């Protein structure tokens, strides 16, 4: 278990502290990003959110419009004081999604390129490269050119090349995106091992929630140029605060208001901002989020008897396969996603336009302050 990332003093004196501001005519990025030594932070967000722009700014490929980037006691970019370290002067290693290995160089020389570019003489640079290839399990392909390598091997060479300069900041841009599913799983596990052993700061950009959950100590969610949520992977998954995060982790999410009053027991009624109400198992007063899994939603052909709480009429919009189950998209107050069996889809005739009843138990609904 790494703890360096939670050590605020070390974080400010030796890690990354950045206020990244990039203004373009149709886009405005403004985020604070802090990460300690040994900490892996994943930037997660939809297309066009500004993830790559942030990474490029940290790398020195995109000058800031305002703000500042500090790494340890070095200033990498600060427009106000005209400080700007060029990419080759920054103590960073970068792995891009398409690897960008030099096609005419062997794996060994690709890895040795980094130390060479930092002024290390040829023989020690090659010795360091050999040792890095051994660490990533590729000593036997040292002489191979990139086109002779598999996707997973090329990715490992790219990682070895980035680490061979002993960077204080490692930047990974969709590092697993180019791999097929099976290779991806192996390389993800390897990458996690290498990142655990790495004592510098790592910022990783990904679209893929699973990569972020497995690799990162902390998630920073970026939407439309702003941070909308951050926290440990478990916190973010448990308590999404935006539609995007809720969809990512596969939860139904609603914003609402409760006065904290409820029926006997601990239940609280939440009036949802977009209509409808839900009774939750836990009483929280004020502005709240309520979230529940699609698997917690039961569908019925007619209004179920008994308790009328959390039971409302919905209309099927679409059905798609989701793992072993079928995910049904429903409109209503509120609209919901429900995971049901293929048998249930057939029995209830869940075609688009079909009207059914949705129900969810109060105990299955999480409620937390907004
Ligand atoms: N070189 C550029 N010049 C001008 N605009 C750009 C440039 N690169 C990106 N943009 C724009 O800046 C915004 C942020 O893009 P960016 O690539 O940082 O987002 P992203 O979160 O990495 O998206 P994706 O996941 O699709 O890669 C988008 O509106 C994009 O069209």
Automatic annotation (TrEMBL):
GO molecular function terms attached to this record: ABC-type ferric iron transporter activity; ATP binding; ATP hydrolysis activity
Q: Where is the ABC transporter domain?
A: 10-249
PROSITE patterns found in the cross-reference section? ABC_TRANSPORTER_1, ABC_TRANSPORTER_2, MOP
State the organism of origin: Actinopolymorpha cephalotaxi
The beginning of the lineage is: Bacteria, Bacillati, Actinomycetota, Actinomycetes, Propionibacteriales
Annotated Mop domain residues:
305-369
UniProt keyword list = ATP-binding, Cell membrane, Ion transport, Iron, Iron transport, Membrane, Molybdenum, Nucleotide-binding, Transport
Offer a single GO CC term for the protein: membrane
Protein name per Swiss-Prot or TrEMBL: Molybdate transport system ATP-binding protein
Q: This protein's superkingdom?
A: Bacteria
Q: Which Pfam families match?
A: ABC_tran, TOBE
């Amino acid at each position: 278990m790494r703890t360096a990332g939670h050590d605020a003093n070390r974080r400010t004196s030796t890690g990354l502290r950045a206020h990244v501001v990039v203004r373009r005519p149709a886009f405005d990025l403004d985020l604070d990003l802090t990460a300690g030594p040994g900490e892996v932070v994943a930037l997660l967000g939809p297309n066009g959110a500004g993830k790559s722009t942030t990474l490029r700014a940290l790398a020195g490929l995109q000058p800031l419009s305002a703000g500042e980037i500090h790494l340890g006691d070095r200033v990498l970019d600060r427009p106000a004081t005209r400080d700007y370290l060029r990419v080759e002067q920054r103590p960073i290693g970068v792995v891009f999604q398409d690897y960008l290995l030099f096609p005419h160089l062997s794996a060994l020389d690709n890895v040795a390129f980094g130390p060479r570019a930092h002024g290390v003489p040829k023989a020690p640079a090659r010795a360091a490269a050999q040792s890095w290839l051994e660490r990533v399990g590729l000593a036997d392909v040292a002489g191979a050119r990139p086109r002779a390598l598999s996707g997973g091997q090329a990715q490992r060479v790219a990682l070895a090349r980035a680490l061979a300069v002993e960077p204080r900041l490692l930047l990974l841009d969709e590092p697993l995106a180019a791999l097929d599913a099976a290779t991806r799983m192996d390389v993800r596990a390897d990458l996690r091992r290498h990142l655990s052993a790495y004592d510098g700061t790592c910022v990783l950009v990904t679209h893929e929630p699973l990569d972020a959950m497995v690799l990162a100590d902390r998630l920073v969610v970026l939407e439309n140029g702003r941070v909308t949520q951050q926290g440990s992977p478990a916190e973010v998954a448990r308590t999404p605060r935006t539609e995007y995060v809720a969809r990512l982790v596969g939860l139904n999410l609603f914003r609402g208001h409760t006065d904290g009053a409820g029926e006997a027991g601990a239940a609280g009624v939440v009036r949802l901002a977009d209509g409808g109400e839900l009774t939750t198992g836990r009483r929280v007063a004020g502005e709240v989020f309520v979230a529940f899994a699609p698997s917690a939603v039961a569908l019925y052909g007619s209004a179920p008897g008994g308790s009328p709480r959390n039971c409302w009429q919905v209309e099927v919009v679409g059905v798609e396969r989701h793992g072993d189950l079928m995910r049904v998209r429903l409109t209503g107050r509120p609209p919901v996603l429900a995971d049901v069996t293929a048998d249930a889809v057939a029995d209830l005739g869940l075609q688009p336009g079909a009207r059914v009843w949705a129900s969810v138990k109060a105990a299955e609904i999480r409620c937390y302050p907004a």
